[in-house]
Task: inverse folding
C-alpha cells in the first residue's frame, strides 16, 4: 500500500498573497493531479502531470501554477489569493491513466482567504 | 462537455435499510465510471469501478450501469452509521479527464 500526504492541512492567507500547497505520494505512481473542491460542486481539475517534469493544464488552471519537482511530489501555487475564497484542494495519483487504473486521493488542504 | 448530475442531494436512511444513489451523465461515450466515498475532512475512497453495462459488486456496494439510459447507480446494502459520508460519482470521458458529480450526502441513523 501507499499514502498521499498533503501539507498544510489548513492554509489561511491574505488577499493577493501567493500560497503554495504540497503533495507527496509513495505509491511510485507516474501521474499526479490537483483538484479544487467547492462546497456543493464536483471536483474540478486544475493541473495534472503525466510523469516527472511534465505539466498539463486542466479546466481551472487560471490563477494557479504547478510544479512536479520529482516523481513523488507535486506542488500547487495560488498566484494571487482571492478574498473570501474558500475551497478544499485535493491531490491524487495513479499509475497510468488508461486501462482503468484507480486514482488515489490525499486528505486535502483547506484554504481560507481573509 | 460531459456533465454529471447526482440525486438526491441528501439522503437519510435507517441502519440496515438499502440506500440507493443515482448519477446521470450527458453522453454515453465514457468507458470508466466510479463511485467514491468522502468522509468529512478526508480524501476520496474508491468504492466501485464499473466499465461495462450491468452490475458490479464490491462487498456491500453494488453499482449498476446503463449507458443507453445515461445512468449509473450505487446501492449500499445494510448501511451502517460509519457509512455516513458524501458519495461522489465520476466518469472518465477521455485520457486524464475526469468529470465528478457534486455528490450525495448520506446519513445513516441507528
Result:
Amino acid at each position: 500500500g501507499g499514502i498521499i500526504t498533503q501539507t498544510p492541512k489548513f492554509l489561511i492567507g491574505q488577499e493577493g498573497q501567493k500560497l503554495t500547497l504540497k503533495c507527496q505520494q509513495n505509491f511510485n505512481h507516474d501521474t499526479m493531479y490537483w483538484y479544487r473542491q467547492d462546497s456543493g460542486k464536483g471536483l474540478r481539475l486544475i493541473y495534472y502531470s503525466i510523469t516527472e517534469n511534465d505539466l498539463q493544464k486542466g479546466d481551472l488552471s487560471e490563477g494557479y501554477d504547478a510544479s512536479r519537482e520529482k516523481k513523488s511530489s507535486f506542488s500547487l501555487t495560488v498566484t494571487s489569493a482571492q478574498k473570501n475564497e474558500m475551497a478544499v484542494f485535493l491531490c491524487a495519483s495513479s499509475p497510468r491513466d488508461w486501462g482503468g487504473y484507480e486514482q488515489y486521493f490525499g486528505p486535502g488542504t483547506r484554504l481560507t482567504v481573509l | 462537455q460531459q456533465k454529471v448530475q447526482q440525486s438526491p442531494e441528501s439522503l437519510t436512511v435507517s441502519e440496515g435499510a438499502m440506500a440507493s444513489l443515482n448519477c446521470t451523465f450527458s453522453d454515453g461515450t465514457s468507458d470508466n465510471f466510479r463511485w467514491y466515498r468522502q468522509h468529512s475532512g478526508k480524501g476520496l475512497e474508491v468504492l466501485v469501478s464499473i466499465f461495462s453495462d450491468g452490475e458490479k459488486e464490491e462487498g456491500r456496494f453494488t453499482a449498476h450501469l446503463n449507458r443507453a439510459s445515461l445512468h449509473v447507480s450505487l446501492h449500499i446494502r445494510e448501511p451502517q452509521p460509519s457509512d455516513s459520508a458524501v458519495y461522489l460519482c465520476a466518469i472518465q470521458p477521455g485520457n486524464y479527464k475526469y468529470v465528478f458529480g457534486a455528490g450525495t450526502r448520506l446519513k445513516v441513523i441507528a
Q: What stands out?
A: Chain A touches chain B through 23 residues (CB under 8 Å). Chain A is about 0% helix and 55% strand. The radius of gyration of chain A is 13 Å.
